[in-house]
Specification:
The protein is an alpha/beta fold. The protein has a single domain, classed as 4-Layer Sandwich (Nitrilase/N-carbamoyl-D-aminoacid amidohydrolase). Helices cover 25% and strands 26% of the residues. Strands 1, 2, 3, 4, 5, 6 and 15 form a 7-stranded mixed beta sheet that branches. Helix 1 packs parallel to helix 3. The protein is globular and about 50 Å long. The two termini are 33 Å apart. It binds the ligand NC(=O)CCC(=O)C(=O)O. The ligand NC(=O)CCC(=O)C(=O)O binds next to helix 5.
Length: 272
C-alpha cells in the first residue's frame, strides 16, 4: 500500500490552504498512491478563536473539494481535520476520510480535547471553543480495517487498544504537536502506540509557519506494528512517501500475541 503524507502549514483562508495541499499533491505525489493524508487543522491556523470562524458543516464547500480530490486521484483521502459546525450548534475538531469514489467512508470527532498548561511552555485550551466527540472510529477499506484519531487522542492508549481490538491494522492520526511536547513526546508516543496496538500508525503533522502563534513540531511519521520508525520528516513542509505491507501487523500479532494475551478475567476495557 502506497501512502503519501502532506506536511504543510495552514494559511489565513481555508481555500488557499487547500490549494497548497492540492499543489503539493499534484507536484509530488505519484499517481499510483493508494492513500493521501493531510494534517490536523490543515486549513485553519491553530488558535481557539479561529475554530468557530473557520467551521463548516459536513458536506460543505471544503468537504466537497476534498471529496473531489479523492475522486480525481482515485485514492483514499484522509482530509486531515477541520473545524466542523455540528448540527447541534457546537464546533468539533473533525477528521473525514473519503474513498476512491469520493464518498465519505469515515468521520471522527476528536475525543480528547487538547487542554494543557505546561509551566514555562505550551498552554492551549481547545475546550474554549470546541466540543469533544464521543466515538471510537474504525472503518473498512480494500486493505482491511483502519482506525482514525486526532492528535491529542494519541496520548490515550485505551482508544488505540480499542481500535486494534476492532481490527484496525493501520491508524491514521492527523496531528500538530508543539515545540514543548513535540521534542519530548512525539516520536515516543506514536512509536509506543504502534507497538502496543501492533498496527501501522500514520501521523501527519502541520509544518512550522513563520510568525504563527502556535509553533508546530512537524515530524510527520509512519511507524510500523513493531514500533519501528519507517520514515519521518523534519519540521519543514514536505511529502513523506512510504510503501507498507499490512500483513506485517498479522505477523507481529502472531509472533507477539498482545491482543489475544489480555487477561479479560482480571481486567476489562469496554467501549460504551
Ligand atoms: N493538537 C493537539 O492535539 C496537540 C497535542 C500535543 O501537542 C500533545 O503534546 O499531545
Amino acid at each position: 500500500m502506497k501512502i503519501a503524507q502532506i506536511q504543510m502549514s495552514p494559511l489565513e483562508g481555508r481555500f488557499q490552504s487547500l490549494e497548497v495541499a492540492r499543489q503539493m499533491i499534484n507536484e509530488q505525489v505519484p499517481q499510483d498512491t493508494d492513500l493521501i493524508a493531510l494534517p490536523e487543522m490543515f486549513a485553519c491556523p491553530y488558535q481557539v478563536k479561529n475554530f468557530p470562524q473557520y467551521a463548516e458543516t459536513e458536506g460543505g464547500e471544503m468537504w466537497q473539494l476534498c471529496s473531489a480530490i479523492a475522486k480525481e486521484r482515485h485514492c483514499y483521502f484522509s482530509a486531515g481535520s477541520v473545524p466542523e459546525a455540528g448540527e447541534d450548534g457546537k464546533v468539533y475538531n473533525t477528521a473525514y476520510v473519503f474513498g476512491r469514489d469520493g464518498s465519505q467512508i469515515a468521520k471522527h470527532r476528536k475525543v480528547h480535547l487538547f487542554d494543557i498548561n505546561i509551566k514555562d511552555g505550551q498552554h492551549f485550551r481547545e475546550s474554549e471553543t470546541l466540543t469533544a466527540g464521543d466515538s471510537v472510529t474504525t472503518f473498512e477499506t480494500e486493505f482491511g480495517t483502519f482506525g482514525l484519531a486526532v492528535c491529542y487522542d494519541v496520548r490515550f492508549p485505551e482508544l488505540f487498544r480499542l481500535m486494534a481490538l476492532k481490527g484496525a491494522r493501520l491508524i491514521l492520526v492527523p496531528a500538530s504537536f508543539n515545540m514543548t511536547t513535540g521534542p519530548a513526546h512525539w516520536e515516543l508516543t506514536f512509536r509506543s502506540q504502534a507497538m502496543f496496538s501492533q498496527a501501522f500508525v500514520i501521523a501527519t503533522a502541520t509544518s512550522q509557519a513563520d510568525g504563527a502563534s502556535y509553533r508546530s513540531y512537524g515530524h510527520s511519521l509512519c511507524a510500523d506494528p513493531w514500533g519501528q520508525m519507517i520514515a519521518e520528516l523534519e519540521d519543514a513542509p514536505g511529502v513523506l512517501l512510504t510503501d507498507i505491507d499490512l500483513s506485517r501487523a498479522d505477523e507481529v500479532r502472531r509472533q507477539l500475541p498482545l491482543l489475544t494475551g489480555r487477561r479479560t478475567d482480571v481486567y476489562r476495557l469496554e467501549e460504551v
